[in-house]
Amino acid sequence: MNNWGQLFRKLRKERHLTLQQVADDVNSVSFISKFEKGDSQITFNRLMHLLGKINFSVEEFLYANGRHANKAIDSTFMSYRPIYLTADFMTPIVTFMHNLNISDDDYRADKARIQKDFDVKVNALEKNGPSDWHHYIAILYEIQEVIFEADIRPDAARQSAQLFERIRLMARPIVTYLYNIENWSAFEILLFSISHIAMPVETVHRLEKIAIKRTSEDQTFPMMPQIRFSLLFSLFSTYINFRQLPWAKETLDQIEALLKHAEDAGVAIMLRFYRGWYDYINSNGQTGDDKMQDALSIANILKLSETASEIAKIIPIIKENQKDPSKSMIFIL
């Protein structure tokens, strides 16, 4: 018999969840208790549903099981870097990320429909209760709707302080949740990456250190390095927006240190670009511009079209932001 139940119990307790909080019509308290003790087997569908209660993907669970049992991990997907995780929370997160591409003009033109769509999503998520991922993604939608409303106001620039104060209050349950999780999985990293723009920058800096420390056990999980890199690049953009230059440089140094253990040309190119971004903002315009253009040229030579397109789109905004930090902020998610 495998030790899945023992591992699930460990993960559940690390998230400070009781049997009653993870039980429902699919898996009763009695069944979960027997499963954790090794007295009952579980089907794949019931396991996937149960893992959703602790915000854990199937891939991460199987990987953790191999590590927890001190066995070699021979699952096929471990030979590759997965691009998607088998977890109930993935589709809602991807859907939310897609909604971030809605422009101010699109929102103005179709405000009623977009608001209704957001309200439907929030109501559907909240029906599942505040003890799992549904509640936190619902908060993300509510924050995004507030940001949309603020951005289309004529006095948006003057109202920015009030906007940040409001969304920071809304994000407090997410901050509390992240502080309380002992070992972060992909869900916590993704949640932090998406929600950190609604947090005070000092809180973001503290949580960055927690994120790196609390993902150390899973740092060899194939998807984790890429998720960590994406998070750190995202945090850099926040630090640079608020002119926290020492923290911005510290984050780039952290990326460089992690890159030594991961051969990733795409990350190396983006690190060159972000170094240029830092130099450009830090009163070293020509050096910074040269590095950014170098990264763009390398991406084009290697035919990394998406990377090249992203860099080309961001460079003009960086130059505007350097002139006036209160305008043209760039948040990379």
From TrEMBL:
Domain HTH cro/C1-type as annotated: residue spans: 8-61
InterPro entries per UniProt: Cro/C1-type_HTH, HTH-type_regulator_Rgg, Lambda_DNA-bd_dom_sf, Transcription_activator_Rgg_C
Species assigned in the record: Lentilactobacillus sunkii DSM 19904
SUPFAM superfamilies: lambda repressor-like DNA-binding domains (SSF47413)
Tree of life domain: Bacteria
PROSITE patterns recorded: HTH_CROC1
Membrane-spanning residues: none
Protein name: Rgg GadR MutR family transcriptional activator
SMART domains (UniProt xref): HTH_XRE
A GO molecular-function annotation: DNA binding
Cross-referenced CDD domains: HTH_XRE
